[in-house]
Amino acid sequence: MTQLEKARKGLITKEMKIAAAAEGVEPEYIRQGMVDGVIVICRNVNHTAIKPLAIGKGLRTKVNANIGTSKDNNDLTLELEKLKSPRKWALTL
């Protein structure tokens, strides 16, 4: 059963509790947000070392940027610019 299926059945999972504690909200807020379709919990069942992360309405803003060069694109200056942009926007939110 998925996290969403459990949320729809009114169950609060360990992952919901962990995500809620990290966000400073009640686990019920996370559960109801999932049911309403405004919150998701990111967690791959095959990567159990990763902590559950809640993303959505009323939660902290998360910024993700893919930084790195490859054989096709090895412009370090461009990669450093990619790093500055999310930091700039994260600091203004």
Structural category is mainly alpha
**Secondary structure tally, helices:** 4
Radius of gyration: 17 Å
Reported for the largest beta sheet, the result is:
2 strands, antiparallel
Question: Which consecutive residue ranges, at least 5 long each, have pLDDT under 50?
Answer: none
Nearest-integer average pLDDT = 88
Q: In which range does the helix fraction lie?
A: 40-55%
Using DSSP, what is the number of strands? 2
Our measurement of the CA-to-CA distance between the termini, rounded to an integer number of angstroms, reads 36 Å
Order of helices and strands: HHHEEH
Mass-distribution shape: elongated
For the biggest β-sheet, the strand order reads: 1-2
The share of residues in extended strands comes to 5-15%
Can you describe what's shown?
The protein has 93 residues and is mainly alpha-helical. Helix content is 46%, strand content 9%. The protein contains 4 helices and 2 strands; from the N terminus they run αααββα. Strands 1-2 form a two-stranded antiparallel ribbon. Helix 2 packs across helix 3. The chain is elongated, with a radius of gyration of 17 Å. The mean pLDDT is 88.
Write a concise synopsis of the structure shown.
The protein is mainly alpha-helical and 93 residues long. It is 46% helix and 9% strand. The chain has 4 helices and 2 strands; from the N terminus they run H-H-H-E-E-H.
Offer a few descriptive terms.
two-stranded antiparallel ribbon, 9% strand, 93 residues
